Amino acid sequence: MQALVAIYDIVSMIVNVLIMLIIIQFVIGLLFAFNVVSRNEFLMSFYEGINRLLDPLLRPIRRFLPNTGAIDFSPIVLILALNALLIVLSSIISASA
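and the corresponding C-alpha cells:
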C-alpha cells in the first residue's frame, strides 16, 4: 500500500511540474505576442526548450481538436487530462486500501 502511495506522490509531482511548464509556456507566449518583452536570447531559448518538452504531449491533442485559428486549446485539454489521471490514480489507491 505504501508503495502505491509513493508512486502516486511521484506521479503527482511530475504532473504538477508539467502543469507549471504549460502555464509558463502560455505566459511567455502571451508576452511575446503582445510585445511586452523583447525576444532576447535567454527567453527564446527557454521558451523553445519548454516547447520541445511539451510538444510530444500536445501534438496528439492538436490532431484531434478542430482548428480554431490563433487560439490553441490543447494546453487546457492536457491540463484537464493530467488532473483526470491524478483523480483516477487516487481512486485506485483508495479502493485498494
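(Above: one complete record from the training split.) Helices lie at 2-33, 41-64, 74-95.
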